[in-house]
Amino acid sequence: MDLIASHISHRFGDLAVLDDVSFTVSAGEVVAIVGPSGCGKSTLLSILGGLLQPTSGAPELRGDPPADSFNPLTFVFQDFALLPWASVEENVEFPLLHTALSPTRRRALVDDALRRTGLTEFRTTYPKQLSGGMRQRVGISRALAVKPAILLMDEPLSALDSQTRELLMEDFVRLLADGSMGAVYVTHNLEEASRLADRIVVLSRRPGRIREVVSVPMTRAERGETAAREKLLAIQSQIWSLIRNEAIDAEREVQHA
Ligand SMILES: Nc1ncnc2c1ncn2[C@@H]1O[C@H](COP(=O)(O)OP(=O)(O)OP(=O)(O)O)[C@@H](O)[C@H]1O
Ligand SMILES: [Mg+2]
Predict the structure, then answer these.
(1) Of 118, 148, 178, which residue sits at a domain end?
(2) Both 91 and 214 in a single domain?
(3) Number of domains in the chain
(4) Are 203 and 187 contacting, i.e. CB atoms less than 8 angstroms apart?
(5) For every one of its 257 residues, what pLDDT tens digit does the chain have, with 9 covering 90 and above?
(6) Ligand 1, atom 2: nearest CA belongs to which residue?
(7) Is 0.90 surpassed by the pTM of this model?
């Protein structure tokens, strides 16, 4: 199943936020969205996920979702969005409660999602007992439970310290390795974008327009190796040179607001 952003523009009242954004996320592909603060990245993700109707253009799904998918497009949030009163396994089971699945089948899906995120032994703990990294693993596990075709991730690691981020990036590389799941990955962090994405969509300052689409011509497994460091740094500096001046302007605007 492919996700196609087709000429998406959006305004909030007088504020033009996105301008004619088009790109395709093919099955199993990871597309990162980067751009200066306030350029419309989160708005674009909400539109792609069907939470927000764009002013013009539309997101489209082409092809069938995987047969066992309950929610082809599934969000992973920056602030994890866990239910504090529910245990880890109850959080992961939550999106399956409104399906017609039998308790046994639900349990099997929850077990599988917990195992893939290394949470099996934490299933009865509560979010407040866990570190930030483990909380986000619960958020990811909950997303995996519905067997998404494409994860929609808005700064999923930005609330975490750099070592935890590194570990979760390794988790993502593992989870994305078999190509059965794709992702749209919104981030400020160019290292995350260059480590995880097949292609990086660089947006301009608001109203966000596509400035460039940068491909990362290496497998994700190769990128973890020392030999890849220089290539990845070159990609990051190429993107930074595209957004640096606009990031400065965006930063000034935020401070004067
Ligand atoms: N519901 C809304 N109503 C009005 N304006 C909004 C709304 N949501 C976002 N905006 C504005 O639209 C612009 C784009 O916001 P958005 O959150 O999409 O940017 P972003 O690229 O995700 O920013 P950041 O990098 O800070 O996360 C901003 O100026 C924001 O203030
Ligand atoms: Mg945002």
Answers:
(1) 148
(2) no
(3) 2
(4) no
(5) 999 999 999 999 999 999 999 999 999 999 999 999 999 999 999 999 999 999 999 999 999 988 889 999 999 998 899 999 999 999 999 999 989 999 999 999 999 999 999 999 999 999 999 999 999 999 999 999 999 999 999 999 999 999 999 999 999 999 999 999 999 999 999 999 999 999 999 999 999 999 999 999 999 999 988 999 999 999 999 999 999 988 888 888 876 65
(6) 12
(7) yes
193's CB contacts (< 8 A; 6+ apart) are: 32, 34, 185, 187, 200, 236, 239
The answer to whether 222 and 177 are in contact (CB under 8 A) is: no
Longest C-alpha distance within the chain, in Å? 55
For residue 225, the CA-to-ligand 2 centroid distance in Å is 30
State whether the beta carbon of 40 lies less than 6 angstroms from ligand 1: yes
| Same domain, residue pair 130 and 189 | no
User: Which ligand is nearest to the Cα of residue 47, counting in written order?
Assistant: 1
Is residue 73 included in any domain, yes or no? no
